[in-house]
Amino acid sequence: MSLRAVLFSLVTLLASLGGGQGLRAQEVVVNTVTRPPFSMPVGGQEVGFSMDLVREVARRLGWDLRINRVESFAQMLEGVERGEVTMAAANISITAGREAVMDFSQPIFESGLQIMLQAEDVSEPSLWSALMSWDLFAAIGIAFVLLLIGGMLMWLFERRAQPYFDRPLKDAWFPAFWWALNLVVNGGFEERVPRSILGRLFGVLLVVSSLFVVSVFVAKITAAMTVEAINGSVNSVNDLYGKKVGTIQGSTAAGFLDRREIDYVAFPGLGELLADFEAGKTRIVVFDAPVLKHYVSTDGAGKGVVTGNTFLTEYYGIIFPQGSGYLEPTNRALLEMKEDGTYDALYRKWFGSRS
């Protein structure tokens, strides 16, 4: 720990031992990074759930709050770790690694990871799309040809044996095809039973082969729907293997993908990640669920779709240098806000009613 950080910790510790009165006249500097809807600049104002939260804490404790917006998440945390600022707030996940070198407040938000896809990549397998597949059209065409050939062979065998087939070639093709189609669909019928020896042998062969023809149709429809489902939307973590996935370098999402041995492209920040996504280069994003949901309902409306359930539940907190005297007053203020309904009001403002 640097000398500056040691001195900062000593000052804040002495202030906290004095009942928190020494903190009231001090300027409190909060590092943050752009992470809508938790922290973002809008019209020259610093807004977002986390910004409203720390602003209310500062109001209750009488602090003079100054928000310092930095370019990257890592830069935000480094300022706290080195003791250069009082605290940091955005969407900071509470992890063992960060807790080892800094101190977290009590949790301020329950979150998790989720998957975002290009809107055009989201599809559901349907019977209609399966019926419109080229494979099925090919199978139907081949079946029609085989039925026509079978019917014409039966006409050749039976044209002198029964009146139904006793017609010229130019008039026989559709009745012969219709006879074969009815034979396959119904599995045989009493009317127009073949009378010639060759006709009867061929009729038995058609009845048996009709079982195979029906099975082919069922298999083709099932296969078409299965292939569409496989090639369709990604719905869970298990669907990410072999796909091009994007996330932010050093994030909890990146750590999760590393543990699951899922290949991904790491971007330095959220802006770069979303720009690549909007350009259509990154097709799948894995990141914090509330950040992705906010994006698809605002700037990303019509561009991205959040899919699947939230996974890897995590909690956000406000982070302080180790030994900071600002930690306990902040925790007390947060507890008061949860008890008097202020926290719930801020939550509803940014996220709506809790499900």
Explain this structure:
With 355 residues, the chain is of the alpha/beta class. 49% of the residues lie in helices and 17% in strands. It has helices at residues 3-17, 49-61, 73-81, 96-99, 127-131, 134-158, 169-186, 197-231, 252-259, 270-278, 289-297, 327-340, 342-351, and strands spanning 27-32, 40-42, 45-47, 64-69, 87-88, 102-104, 109-118, 245-248, 265-267, 284-288, 304-316, 319-321. The protein has a 5-stranded mixed sheet, with helices on both faces. Strands 4-1-5 form a 3-stranded parallel sheet. Helix 9 links the parallel strand 8 (245-248) and strand 9. The longest helix is centred in the middle third of the chain and has 35 residues, at 197-231. The protein is rod-shaped and about 110 Å long. The model is unreliable at 15-24 (pLDDT under 50).
What distinguishing features does this structure have?
single chain, 355 residues, alpha/beta, five-stranded mixed sheet, three-stranded parallel sheet, rod-shaped
